[in-house]
């Protein structure tokens, strides 16, 4: 019965040389949940593998961003194979963080283990940033990254993000990065 319902929000499709970024579909959930349940993937983000319930909440949040705010996360899939590679996009998480990022599109990316080390993150983030440049009224976007996540720091810097300051989020140190048009 639930399979008969489909979201009505049109999520733009972005293409890079090797990736297609598109809206989430119900059938993507199994791949998303497997990724968020992988200890290697979550070590620098949420810190522990997520349960299926936590993954479902995250999954719905991605779709909800598009429906309510006109931006959100995309599924990244390999163009050559159609294989799920990860999730990239913008959100407004209303984080309890100083300085506040409320109202500032916050970019994030996470890749399945099989997609690590291929340059996919940089490729996908550049495409998302270009979309944001064309669609956001604000000239500023941001991201937070764990200080030990050297790979994501490199991606952020390659895509024009510069460290603004160090902060604490949920008791853990983070680096806050911003990008101005």
Question: How would you portray this structure in words?
Answer:
There is one protein chain. With 181 residues, the protein is α+β, with helices and mostly antiparallel strands. It contains 5 helices and 8 strands; from the N terminus they run E-E-H-H-H-E-E-E-H-E-H-E-E. It has helices at 29-36, 39-42, 52-69, 120-135, 150-158, and strands at residues 14-15, 19-22, 73-78, 84-91, 106-111, 140-145, 162-169, 172-180. Strands 1-2-3-4-5 form a 5-stranded antiparallel sheet, sandwiched between helices. Strand 7 (162-169) and strand 8 form a beta hairpin. Helix 1 (29-36) packs across helix 3. The protein starts with 13 loop residues before the first strand and ends with a strand.
Tally of DSSP helical segments: 5
Helical percentage: 25-40%
Give the overall silhouette: globular
Strand order of the largest sheet: 1-2-3-4-5
Overall average residue pLDDT: 94
């Amino acid at each position: 019965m639930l399979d008969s319902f489909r979201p009505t929000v049109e999520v733009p499709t972005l293409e890079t040389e090797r990736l297609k970024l598109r809206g989430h579909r119900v059938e993507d959930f199994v791949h998303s949940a497997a990724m968020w349940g992988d200890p290697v993937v979550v070590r620098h983000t949420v810190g522990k593998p997520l349960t299926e319930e936590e993954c479902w909440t995250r999954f719905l949040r991605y779709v909800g961003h598009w429906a309510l705010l006109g931006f959100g996360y995309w599924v990244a899939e390999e163009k050559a194979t159609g294989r799920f590679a990860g999730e990239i996009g913008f959100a407004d998480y209303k984080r309890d963080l100083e300085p506040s990022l409320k109202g500032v599109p916050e970019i994030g990316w996470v890749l399945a283990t099989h997609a690590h080390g291929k340059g996919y993150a940089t490729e996908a983030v550049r495409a998302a940033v270009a979309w944001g440049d064309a669609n956001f009224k604000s000239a500023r976007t941001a991201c937070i990254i764990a200080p030990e996540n050297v790979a994501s720091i490199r991606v952020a810097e390659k895509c024009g993000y510069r460290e603004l300051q160090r902060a604490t989020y949920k008791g853990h140190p983070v680096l806050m990065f911003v990008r101005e048009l």
